[in-house]
Amino acid sequence: MWHPYTQMNDWKKFDVITKGDGMWLIDSKGNKLLDGVASMWCNVWGHSKKELVNSMIKQTKKLQHSSLFNLTNDQAELLGEKLVKISPGMSKVFYSDDGSTAMEIAIKMAIQYWQNIGKKNKIKFVTLDNGYHGDTVGAMSIGYVPTFFSKFKNILFPVIKTPTPHKYRMPKKFTYREYQEYCLEKIEKTFVKNNDLAAFVMESGAQIAGGVIIYPIEFQKKISQLCKKYNVLFILDEIATGFGRLGSFIEYYAQKSIPDIVSYGKMLTGGYLPLAATLTSQKIYDSYLGNYEDMKHFFHGHTFTGNPLACATALTNLELYDKNNLISKNKIKTKQIERRVGEISNLSIVGDVRHKGMLMAIELVCNKNKKTPISPDKKIHQKIFVEAKKHKIYLRTLGHIMMLVPPLAISEKELEFLLDGAIDIIKKVTKDV
Ligand SMILES: Cc1ncc(COP(=O)(O)O)c(C=O)c1O
Predict the structure, then answer these.
(1) Which of 29, 117, 162, 244 has the fewest C-beta atoms lying within 10 Å of its C-beta?
(2) C-alpha 123 – ligand 1 centre gap (Å)
(3) Among 406, 429, 432, 407, which residue's Cα sits nearest to residue 419?
(4) In the prediction, which pLDDT does 144 show?
(5) CA separation (Å) from 346 to 26, 78, 192, 343, 405?
């Protein structure tokens, strides 16, 4: 097997996970690991949650898959209704299987929208530096993280990039406030200069894979206002940040920025099955209506679009959010994480700690004053993984950035275990870097 984002020479042997029990992953030898990254940021309730498993069994007995080409299915319909209800400003749902595809759909939906209304020149995208929207070619184009994608640069479509207000790594000549203004001015100037823009695309609330950069208050809202003013569609990616990761159920609503198109994925099924959704407004949907020969319908679809098993699981997952009052309960755990920020910041190789909701990023540096990131040849990602395992924790870093992304329903005790473990792991790897 060939593993994602992995130098296979360095990893001859992998632990084989055979079971999941609550917040713990259990390998073939019976060793337990606390799932410190929510199995790539998607697990909500921990593993083997009874209600989700039962819902999957119940649906499996009835209908496993049936296509949305010329037919519909009850679970996809019910989930569609629910998603529209919880997503202010959105009227229609287009299903897919993963986050990257949901973003490809967003790109195509925007482009064809402008064609449908006769504005064929509006084909360009504007995005923030260091955004990430997935690994397919369109998603790499709009979400270019240089260390991930430089090999593919030559085949990506051109996108206009504007700076991200990254407080820790912004140019020295600005105050943070000035830099925010500067970033917004750059966007506005781009909008003024180009009349061929299809959409502005950004992650909602924070950039995650590009280094966990949490936007300042009002930044996203102001971009949404600029989009309206200059007739540019506003596309949000809530794949990693929605459904409570940053502390709000619908992050764009908390940011007071209603998009034209928004994508959900990861935690939509509680992290149990692959499902993603791209939602849009009535205005965009209506532009696709016409006679068949107008060729205005959306030219996109996948085999598993609207898979009933995944949709049933998502419905149960969303019910559980309500029943358990998860979002408001997590405020206590957010405070619990916050309380440890100072202690972590003081560690000798910690340059910056960024935290919001149920997410913490710890940027590791070899020189605090110069903010020099620990270089890849130190293999810090691997050392942290190995040391974390000794602490009975599963961690996956983003290069020199350690991420704590627990399942949202983690208990306070297990969260303390994760935070204590993280501090100890950093102390242990310090001598190697
Ligand atoms: C913000 C964001 N968008 C899109 C994606 C891509 O999702 P997937 O890995 O399901 O294709 C990710 C994955 O981490 C993400 O963080």
Answers:
(1) 29
(2) 23
(3) 406
(4) 85
(5) 33, 49, 44, 5, 21
Q: Which atom of ligand 1 is nearest to the CA of 99?
A: 7
Q: How far is CA 395 from CA 70, 126, 284, 391, 415, in A?
A: 44, 33, 41, 10, 14
Chunked mean pLDDT (size 10), the chain, 433 residues: 93 94 98 98 98 98 98 98 98 98 98 97 97 98 92 96 98 97 98 98 97 97 98 98 98 98 98 98 98 96 97 98 97 98 97 98 96 92 96 96 98 98 97 83
> Which sequence spans correspond to the domains of the chain?
53-324, 329-430
The pLDDT, as a whole number, for residue 207 is 98
Ligand 1 contacts CB of residue 243 (under 6 A): no
- The answer to whether the CB of 132 is under 6 A from ligand 1 is yes
Is the pTM above the cut of 0.70? yes
Strand order in the sheet with 160-162: 92-96, 276-280, 261-264, 233-237, 197-203, 124-128, 160-162
Q: 382: which residues sit within 8 A by CB, 6+ positions away?
A: 10
Rounded to the nearest angstrom, the distance between the alpha carbon of 410 and the centre of ligand 1 is 22
Ligand 1 center to 237 CA (angstroms) = 9
What is the position in ligand 1's atom list of the atom closest to the CA of 136? Answer: 11
Which mutation among 40, 95, 98, 100 tests ligand 1's pocket best, with the greatest number of atoms within 8 A of CB? 100
Alpha carbon nearest to ligand 1 atom 13, residue:
134
**What would the DSSP string read from start to end of 38-72?**
HHHHT-SS-BT-HHHHHHHHHHHHH-S---SSS--
Judge if the beta carbon of residue 99 lies within 6 A of ligand 1.
Answer: yes
Residue 406 to residue 409: CA distance in whole angstroms:
8
CA dist., res. 134 & res. 250, Å (int): 20
What is the distance in A from the centroid of ligand 1 to the CA of 373? 24
104 Cβ closer than 6 Å to some ligand 1 atom: no
> Which parts of 256-376 fold into alpha helices (H)?
282-287, 308-324, 326-338, 341-345
Residue 100 alpha carbon to ligand 1 centre in Å: 6
203 within ligand 1 shell (Cβ under 6 A):
yes
Given 3.30.565.10, 1.10.287.180, 3.90.1150.10, 3.90.190.20, which CATH number is that of 329-430? 3.90.1150.10
In CATH terms, the fold of domain 53-324 is Aspartate Aminotransferase; domain 2 (3.40.640)
Ligand 1 in reach of 251 Cβ (< 6 A) = no
